[in-house]
Amino acid sequence: MNRRAVPKLSKYGLTYAEYMAMRQACRDLCEICGNPETTVANGKVKPLAIDHCHQSGKVRGLICHACNHALGQMADDPERLRAAAAYLERTAAAIAS
Q1: CB-based contacts of 89: which residues, under 8 Å, 6+ apart?
Q2: How far is CA 80 from CA 33, 51, 57, in A?
Q3: Measured CA distances, 43 to 29, 39, 40, 46 (Å)
Q4: What pairing do the DSSP bridges indicate for beta strands 49-52 and 44-45?
Q5: What is the pLDDT of residue 23?
Q6: Of 9, 36, 43, 57, whose CB has the highest number of CB atoms within 10 Å?
Q7: What average pLDDT is seen over the chain?
Q8: What pLDDT does residue 1 have?
Q9: pLDDT at 20 (0 to 100)
Q10: Residue 8's pLDDT band (cuts 50, 70, 90)
């Protein structure tokens, strides 16, 4: 991947080498769902999103755009995410029958 294909690293305080090390560490798979990125822009698959804490600005990891949007919709709130998971598990049996 060339440098033009990566997100704006300076926004996150990352060097190109640090970003590439992060990609290698996660094997270019989302750190939440474990899948590769599938979002396409301008005919090319986008790089994984650089996930960061919106309060501190610190980078958490690389995640796919779907998971990044999901975290954003849940306001990065672990309790809300746990409640959503519990809801899905609680209602799964009812819709399976």
Answers
A1: none
A2: 18, 18, 21
A3: 20, 10, 6, 9
A4: unpaired
A5: 96
A6: 9
A7: 92
A8: 60
A9: 94
A10: confident
Task: Give the type of residue at 78.
Answer: P
Token couple for 72: 């954003």
Three-class HEC string of the chain: CCHHHCCCHHHHCCCHHHHHHHHHHHCCCCCCCCCCCCCEECCEECCCEEEECCCCCCEEEEECHHHHHHHHHCCCCHHHHHHHHHHHHHHHHHHHC
C-alpha distances out from residue 22 to 50, 64, 82, Å: 10, 14, 26
User: How far apart are the two ends of the chain, measured CA to CA in Å?
Assistant: 47
Q: Which two tokens stand for residue 30?
A: 């989302």
Query: So what's the pLDDT on residue 96?
Result: 82
